[in-house]
Amino acid sequence: MVWTCHTINRACKDDHARFYLDSNGSPSDRVCYNCDRVVSPVDCETVITCGADQQCFTDKYVTDENHVLYNLGCKMNKVCSLMAQLGRRDIEDEDSPLDKRNIIHLCTKCCNAGYCNNKLCTDVTTPVPALRCYACNDLESLSACETLKNCEPDEECFAETWFTDMHEIRHHLGCRRKQICDIISMHNTNTVPHGKRQQGTHLCNGCCNSSFCNIAGCQNITNKHFG
């Protein structure tokens, strides 16, 4: 795997990545929550990277069984523009996964910022947990992770990378106790990677304390330890 980091915009990626970091180390604005038939937008814990011609959206609707549910994902810019101009609750478009014959739209809205669509079309005032991290195991590519996890109050986001006995790079993302993260920070070093992991050779691990930050990988997050 080859890592490239461009100084101007800190666009860091691996061979297959589709996540790009801005100057604050945050993923692209095109990363949106992506769920079907959830009871509340704040319940959504999966994401998707939308196309350059798309925005995040949330659709609130009533099913033929009288259940109020939400769909979240990506919608074409042209559809979002039409909804904003016309004030329509439901505009037929090729992106919609819903059968219009069996549902009633209550609200459909778009937003054009990263992770923005779990706040649309809802009156829920319960705050989203302060720290939400990517959580995936045994990844070949960081970009393959589309699952989020709400960390506990005593945890931070965590990332680990190792080289397997099969000569492959693997990543692990999730939450770690702050006590462990503090130990990692205390032993921070820039020496050549070394050390043996159960599945192969450990390359690096690290913690960071802002939502979604660990998708950058352990090479690029706040408190990292090589070896």
Automatic annotation (TrEMBL):
Domain UPAR/Ly6 intervals: 30-118, 130-215
SUPFAM superfamilies linked to this entry: Snake toxin-like
Position of the signal peptide: none
Any matching Pfam family: UPAR_LY6
Protein's UniProt name: UPAR/Ly6 domain-containing protein
Organism: Sinanodonta woodiana
